[in-house]
Design brief:
Helix content: 25-40%
CATH architecture: Alpha-Beta Complex
Structural class: alpha/beta
Number of helices: 6
Number of strands: 7
CATH superfamily: Spore Coat Polysaccharide Biosynthesis Protein SpsA, Chain A
């Protein structure tokens, strides 16, 4: 079976997603931007051209992103670590030999970074982010308790996850780094750097981006 990428995403419910972008954005705008992020992540994954299988794992049932023909699952478990472990273990139980869990906070992430993670020969490979977390984790092997004691959404999340993997007797490796869009300061990157189509359209519709005037003749 080919590798499978499990895209973890929250339903775009105002007040429950991208809350760190408030009060620069309203709860409704945060939800709209999140909806764009997830759509761009799913669109970008089409670049694998069928070399991997894709699944969308939501925290609750929701009808967004139906334009993408990917299986949808509901996350199960308590904290993020338990939900990721359950999803990965379920994939392995179905015969997968390589499982990646990908977040939806990095819509500008190059697909080449994910390919490098999939090429890693380590038992577990992390895609680190600048805030101390990670945008993806790839498993070739999985053991219980790898995420026990991890404090999520902190500067120590990646370090603690690496420690847990090694304590479980698995090899760990870091892939190429990138950045999440979590804070108001991160919005600047979306404005000044190349952004994918859905996110760019949202930024333009909400006047964060303005097309330059046509050159006068």
């Amino acid at each position: 079976m080919p590798p499978v990428i499990l895209v973890f995403a929250k339903a775009p419910v105002p007040g429950r997603v991208k809350t760190r972008l408030q009060p620069v954005l309203s709860p409704e705008e945060c939800a709209e931007l999140h909806r764009s992020f997830v759509g761009d992540v799913l669109e970008g994954l089409q670049g694998f051209n069928g070399e991997v299988d894709l699944e969308l794992h939501l925290d609750q049932a929701f009808d967004d992103w139906r334009e993408f023909d990917v299986p949808r699952e509901l996350q199960s478990g308590g904290d993020l670590g338990e939900r990721m472990w359950n999803a990965a273990q379920n994939a392995f139980s179905k015969g997968r030999t390589q499982v990646m869990i990908l977040g939806s906070d990095a819509p500008t992430l190059p697909i080449e970074h994910l390919k490098q993670l999939l090429d890693s020969s380590a038992d577990v490979a992390f895609g680190p982010t600048e805030d101390g977390g990670y945008y993806a984790v790839m498993f070739r092997r999985l053991k219980p308790a790898v995420f026990d004691g991890v404090e999520w959404s902190t500067e120590s999340t990646l370090e603690q996850s690496m420690t847990g993997v090694r304590k479980a007797g698995l090899s760990a490796e870091l892939g190429p780094g990138w950045y999440d869009i979590d804070s108001p300061a991160d919005l600047v990157r979306l404005v000044v750097e190349t952004t994918p189509p859905r996110t760019r359209a949202w930024l333009k519709a909400n006047h964060f981006l303005v097309d330059p005037p046509a050159d006068s003749i």
